[in-house]
Amino acid sequence: MAMEDEDNNTAVVATNTQTGIKKGGDVGDNGACIDRQPDTVIHQAGLNETAVRGSRSGPGAHAATGIRVLKQRNMKRNGSRGCMTRKTRFGSRERDWLKGDTQRGCVCLYVGTVDPQPPVSGPQASSTPQTDLQLVLCSTSTTVEELCAQRDGQGLYVQLHGDLVRRLDPSERPLQMVYDYLAAMGYADPGRVQQEAANSDLSCLIRFYSERPVNADQQERTLLKGVFSVRKGKSQLHKWAERQVILCGTCLIVASVKDSLTGKMHILPLVGGKVEEVKRRQHCLMFSSAGSQAQTYFVNFDTLADYQRWHRQASKVVSQTVSLVDLSCYSLEAVPEYLFYSQDITHLNLRHNFMSLQGPGGLLNLPRFSQLKSLNLSHNRLGVFPECVCEIFTLTELNLSCNSLHTVPVQIGNLQSLQTLSLDGNHLSSVPEELGGLSQLNSLGLSFNNFSHIPAVLERLSAVDKLAMAGNRMESLELCTLARMSHLKNIDLRLNGLHWVKSKNLEAVSQVTQLDLRDNRLDSLDLSSVCNLETLHCQRNQLGTLTLSGFTLRMLHASSNRLTTVNIYPVPNQLTHMDLSQNLLEYLPDWVCDCRKIEMLDVTHNLLSELPSRLLNSLSLRKLLAGNNRLQRVPDLLDHIPLEALDLQHNKLAELPESLFYKALNLKYLNVSANALESIPPSSPSEESLSTVQELYLTRNNLNENCGALLVGHQNLRVLHIAYNQLLSFPASKLSKLEMLEELNLSGNKLKTIPSTVSSCKRLHTLIAHSNHITVFPEILNLPEIKLVDLSCNELTEILLPDSLPATLQELDLTGNSSLMLEHKTLNLFSHITTLKLDQKSTTTAGDSLSASTPWNHGYSEMSGQRNKLCVSVLAVDRFGDSVEACYGIFDGDRNEEVPRLLQCTMGDVLCEELQHSSIDSVYMCNTFLTSHRKLGMAGQKLGASALLCYIHHEPSDPGGYFSLTVANVGTCQAVLCRDGRPVPLSKVYSLENCTEEMERVKLSKAIITEDNKVSGVTCCSRLLGCSYLSPSVLPKPWVHTEPLCSRDEFLILGNRALFERVSYQEAVCTVQAVRDPRAAAKKLCSLAQSYGCKDNIEAVVVALHIGEDSCTCEPPVSTTEPRGPPPTPVPVTVTPGPSDQATLSSSSGIVSEFNSEASASEVGSEAGSTASDEHPSSGHASRPERRCSLHPATTLCGIMVPVSAVAGTHPGLFQRQPSCATFSSNQSDNGLDSDDEAPLEGVISNGSKLEVEVDIHCCAFQLRSGAPESPKDMDFEKRGSDYPNGKMRRQNSVVVSATNGCLLAVCGREIADLKKSPSTSSLFGKKLSNGSVVAPEDSHNLIEVALEAPKKKSGYFTAPAQQDPEDQLIVPPSLEQEVREQLRGQSPLVSGPSLPSIPPSLKDPVWDHPHPPAFASKLIPGPGPVPILQQEVYDTAL
């Protein structure tokens, strides 16, 4: 209640919610009104006044729609870099306003307080305006005019994605704009739209201002103005005088009268001139114009800031070679009036503004520029063609792209000097005949309009040599039309939906040399009449046949079609480059071998069974790509050839030509991975080798250790991939001779050691040797350039280290070495490594066994490739939610690493929150993506990422039935399910090349798609999380698909674009089937993709599924009559942070904890895990619960499986997972992490290392009904919970809630203290780093000692009672045990928890047998007496 009262105090409620009656208020046309009471004062920046509450009444208001202004208390903000937290905004009255009518809502109105003009002199105003916030409660029918009339405002402004600021028209409706924006994003439910519209985080996407916000930096680049001391000329005869000085455009303007612009103005053109510092006077600059009649002015500034500002801007102007003024992206409605003094301007760029026609600086005044040659008005939302520009007769270049133009006026014919006209991205379907009179026009852009045919006026434009009409609506093309336009040489008809290209007669089209027909719907193409064609692009059609003229053909791009043959006549002797990949070619045409100048041939992904000998022996061919075919042999080389690159991967080759390396002396790149090679040819027939091979890929063959001797001759070898072969060893003497080696991949062999001679490879920077049998750490840490070492999944036992490690070492992976023991000294040496991956030392607990019962486990792998940074992230939770569920996700940021990290940290929490609001898969998954998109905040405005999320769960209609898998994705991340050994794709690739409907949607949004198929040249994806500035072309709404799982489902593979571009679905499935360990399988997938030629970031997640009745591990309850021993003595539980804590790292799979990127802060902070907290062993026997399987789960309580028959009552215990309350708001940093994350921690590695721990927290909860009696155990809960410092009592749905460091964990009071001590949860209480990682205490290795920053009480840190109180111990004689049990059942039917033990400790089960007994075994000894009824307490602990 205190928080709610505070919320109410922060807002002035100006309207009675029920009646809408106001006192002294004004009424709009639709009844909208606003309070104008004298005590309703708008808060200025810096004030923190208490608002006045109360309801006021008066005549003149309507109840249907209304406006209420709520003043927001000033909050600490980081400029506009964050969003304000929501809880300080709404009170009960505001919530009442939103109830019952989804057409009501809230508009957050930001009030700027900076001067719109810079000061005349003195320091410039701050570039970050201080803003206050008003909440305006209104309806969707409330207009801007009504809002402004009621608040005496001049206008409202809207800002999208933190970008440009636009003045709203009086008739626009702000709340409806927000609703429309959210609907376009993907929200469908009106109630959810209303809720999201009221969320303050939305201001990062759409924000309203009551005044135009002013950016001082932008203002500085537009206009500088002030009164300074000025002297004209270099002669001492002139005196200094105070004058008004203006720097605008290309000129320096000096007024002849102080503080007045009415007198004579002295104009000094600066382009090509000079600006120099005057050393004899402080803060003085000399401005000189160019030319023999140069003039000079000296200006003495008052402050250093003014001096630097003017010097910086003037230096840019004088350095220009042309009189160019760039005012793009300034949110301008008019150009500065002073700009018209710069009559020498020839180029004016006004792109991305909101220019209006009227006003002193409007478009109507642009003809005043007498020398203007180039004018750019693109992206100005003009709506109509500005006819005034047709009066600028000097124009040679005009750009009006993306202005929603529907027609072009006939006055365009006045621009007789026009040479370039860009009208792309509009709604034009025709152009006037007057356009044909522009005799000098040589470039006309009509792309992405609505033309259904080529305009006939082009026949008269004889100077135009390129027809740019991509992205229109042409369905057919008559070649005779092109024949009549004899001046057109370059034709661009991409993305038109062309169905056919025909010629009604045999008339030759001789002038066309370049033709682009990509991404159409052609099934056949005959261009034999285009006799002078030099370059043809026809990729991604449906071509079955292709016929061309070969007289002048130089380049042919015809990939991704259905070609079975290509007919070219005559032989194209000028052909140098040909791409026929991803077709259906079974043989190469004979004319290919006759091409005399062919240099590059790509025939990958076809059905070729052989390569012609004449082709391989060509004297011109330099690059041959023939991978993914059916080749069984490669023809012998007859003579020396100039071949430099040869790719033969994924064929059926058993051997290579013997003379390959000494006949192809220029060969630098050879990839023969995924074949059946048992040996490789020698590098030379003699001992002396002339080989120039630098990159050699031999992965996935049948090579043995004998091939090592054959590699010696390749002295220039830099990259060697020989993974997944049959190597038992690598000859030491041979390896030492590869001195130029930089990257070595030996993974997936049977190596037991890597020769010590690897230390001779001084240039080696990458060594990958996972999945072998290596026992001794190789001598590589003395190499001066070593960066990455991957020795995971081996048999290492110890590591012998030098005294110091190379500073270049950035990543070390030692996971999967179960016998490896690292000493404290070793770990200290590793502390500087950016990414360190180590095994978790397993601890067997009840929670671990529970995790082992989940019907899935996972492994993952990430590789940076040739990138300097890793831009991918993984989210993996084997135990998610309040039952047997799992959540997996991958995020690919392409070129940025920030957005994937943020999604990794938040998306699991968001999913958990959405699951509480809806049980419909398409709804909660879609809302998870949309909410995550919003929570990206500032980072998501310009950056984005592909994302894929998989959620394994029971169907809500059948909680006890089989599992379902719900997959949602945006971008190019993909999921594949293996069912009966066959791949089942579950995701949809949202790229323009793969999705026709998305391509059409983007075209309708009038976005420009560049030739590399990227939206606005930025991304090939049509749906992403982030990149909101590309909206509505790029949306965050995901594809959602739910697949029921069955016993035939073996595993699930998640991968990013880089993985599946190189590894097909079928190969990925076969690869994982051959590897039993999911982690090793994921690593193999990434290694294969690298060996197949991928240079990008790669990530893969493999989830092994064990679903079906065969996996049932249930056992029937076992009764016993054995007498019980004495009650065990309770062990004191104390928590003392420091080296004494015996904590180890844990993972969701119970195998590994990786200091890398899989475990996010959200996993550690709030996701239900599979490892319960450690308990100290008891001296007596403990009851063992009945073993249950995941398909038939037993009732669970606080991590302990409880026999169903032994549970008193029907309410099941829960593994409760509460959502995290951490959001990216104003009290956090840019990337959504706590602002104090950057502070160094004592005892923590603070050198930039990324130490991330995969930890799944075993969260437990009780849901007690009111009035229900509690078990004796709850008394102990209460006592232990009372020891928490700063405990605050609150009740939240009768769930025990512990708010820990931004996360809500549903834990029982008994285990909170033990969670701190548990190795599985120790990282929860560690320090969260700025990259989303969590530094966890690792006491077994003494690697990290983190001082827990918990508030202290007088009694110290989280102390627990040393022993139980006597009343907590219930002693029951064996003879009365059954009677007491029956009485307890009758008295406390609703208690959720384990009842009397009924299983003897002597009956041990291998699955559930633990060295530590269950947590509550010692508390369950029955005794006589009634069960006391206690009030359940809820603690909010500040950890």
Tell me how many strands there are.
64
- The backbone outline, from C-alpha atoms, is globular
Number of helices in the DSSP assignment: 26
Mean of all residue-level pLDDT scores: 75
First-residue to last-residue Cα separation: 23 Å
Strand residue percentage = 15-25%
- CA gyration radius, whole angstroms: 37 Å
**Sheet of most strands:** 24 strands, mixed
Report what the structure shows:
The chain is an alpha/beta fold and 1439 residues long. 15% of the residues lie in helices and 19% in strands. The protein has 26 helices and 64 strands. It has a 24-stranded mixed sheet, with no helix packed on it. A 7-stranded antiparallel sheet has the order 12-11-10-9-15-14-13. The protein has a 6-stranded mixed sheet with strand order 3-5-4-8-6-7. Helix 11 links the parallel strand 35 and strand 36. Helix 4 crosses helix 5 and helix 24 packs across helix 25. It is globular. The two termini are 23 Å apart. The N terminus and C terminus are likely disordered.
Concise summary:
15% of the residues lie in helices and 19% in strands. With 1439 residues, the chain is α/β, with parallel strands linked by helices. Residues 1-66, 68-88, 113-130, 1110-1369 and 1388-1439 have low confidence and may be disordered.
